[in-house]
């Protein structure tokens, strides 16, 4: 499991593009036949992907988290961004279609990822945080969570937001997680850009066309930087960093947070006219 150490705002002015990519971009989230994980010391989040590629993939007990099994002291959100697949948790099998979300709470011992019978191409995005108690396993299919329509076509940010794991949906200790899909002709994923100094947020960009890219903004409002992001790549956004992006075509992204609270609207907006 790759480790990413915490960074602070004072580092941003001296960072090259390569430095920024090494600190905040995860370029290979989905590796066929593997569970690929990255540990960030920002809120001790683990994120990554599981791609069965025709095999059964167990969730490993990686030594970096010092646990007998992965979810001994953690919780996990799983969103399938590929073909239909299954997640078996302590013997109970859950079928996840594209866009479905599964929550697994602290104490689930055995987790196995697989393609559904007769299917190929499941790609499970994984987001984990430390947990202080146990909440029950829950599966939510696309459109069954809290759906919010946000933005405006006139400002190129019309989008449908599906909230899955949150304080009024699937219960968790820390994780807040969902999927946002931009409408055709819209490119901005978050307007206005914002920070929330109480939570780290990670974005997984997906359904980005092969010939398109997303320009992801990060840093402080008076020291903004950008990263060029391709399909199925992820960004780690520290609590002090704003996070927003614009693409050359419409796309979707999984947003996931962990930290001090679970209030989705607890954010400090940064007007585009204030950014430098």
Automatic annotation (TrEMBL):
| Function as written in the Swiss-Prot or TrEMBL entry | Catalyzes the isomerization of 5-dehydro-4-deoxy-D-glucuronate to 3-deoxy-D-glycero-2,5-hexodiulosonate.
Give its E.C. classification number.
5.3.1.17
Gene3D superfamilies, per database record: Jelly Rolls (2.60.120.10), pectin degrading enzyme 5-keto 4- deoxyuronate isomerase, domain 1 (2.60.120.520)
Q: How is the cofactor bound?
A: Binds 1 zinc ion per subunit.
**What's this protein's family per the entry?**
Belongs to the KduI family.
Enumerate the residues binding Zn(2+). 194, 196, 201, 243
- Protein name (database record): 4-deoxy-L-threo-5-hexosulose-uronate ketol-isomerase
Under SUPFAM superfamilies, the record lists: RmlC-like cupins
Q: Per UniProt, what is the name of the gene that codes for the protein in this document? A: kduI
Broadest EC class assigned to this enzyme: isomerase
- List cofactor names only: Zn(2+)
**What pathway does the annotation place this protein in?**
Glycan metabolism; pectin degradation; 2-dehydro-3-deoxy-D-gluconate from pectin: step 4/5
Enumerate the CDD domains for this protein.
cupin_KduI_C, cupin_KduI_N
Q: Which reaction does it catalyse?
A: 5-dehydro-4-deoxy-D-glucuronate = 3-deoxy-D-glycero-2,5-hexodiulosonate
Question: Which InterPro entries does the record cross-reference, listed alphabetically?
Answer: KduI (IPR007045), KduI/IolB_isomerase (IPR021120), KduI_N (IPR027449), RmlC-like_jellyroll (IPR014710), RmlC_Cupin_sf (IPR011051)
| GO biological process terms, semicolon-separated | D-galacturonate catabolic process; D-glucuronate catabolic process; pectin catabolic process
Query: What keywords is this UniProt entry annotated with?
Result: Isomerase, Metal-binding, Zinc
- GO MF annotation list: 4-deoxy-L-threo-5-hexosulose-uronate ketol-isomerase activity; zinc ion binding
């Amino acid at each position: 499991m790759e480790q990413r150490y915490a960074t602070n705002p004072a580092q941003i002015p001296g960072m090259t593009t390569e430095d920024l990519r090494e600190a905040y971009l995860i370029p290979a989230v989905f590796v066929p036949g593997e569970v690929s994980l990255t540990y960030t010391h920002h809120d001790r989040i683990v994120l990554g992907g599981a791609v069965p590629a025709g095999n059964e993939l167990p969730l490993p007990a990686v030594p970096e988290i010092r646990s007998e099994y992965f979810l001994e002291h953690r919780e996990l959100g799983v969103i399938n961004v590929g073909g239909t697949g299954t997640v078996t948790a302590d013997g109970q099998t859950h079928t996840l279609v594209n866009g479905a979300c599964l929550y697994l709470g602290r104490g689930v011992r055995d987790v196995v990822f697989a393609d559904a019978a007769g299917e190929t191409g499941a790609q499970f995005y994984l987001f984990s945080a430390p947990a202080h108690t146990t909440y029950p396993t829950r599966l939510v299919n696309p459109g069954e969570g809290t759906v919010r329509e946000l933005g405006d076509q006139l400002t190129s940010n019309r989008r449908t937001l599906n909230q899955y794991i949150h304080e009024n949906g699937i219960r968790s200790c820390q994780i807040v997680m969902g999927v946002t899909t931009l409408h055709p002709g819209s490119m901005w994923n978050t307007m206005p850009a914002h920070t929330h100094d109480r939570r780290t947020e990670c974005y997984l960009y997906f359904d980005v066309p092969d010939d398109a890219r997303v320009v992801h903004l990060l840093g402080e409002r008076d020291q903004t930087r950008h990263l060029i992001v391709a399909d199925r790549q992820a960004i780690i956004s520290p609590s002090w960093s704003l996070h927003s992006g614009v693409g050359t075509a419409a796309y979707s992204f999984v947003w996931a947070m962990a930290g001090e609270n679970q209030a989705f609207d607890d954010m400090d907006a940064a007007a585009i006219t204030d950014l430098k």
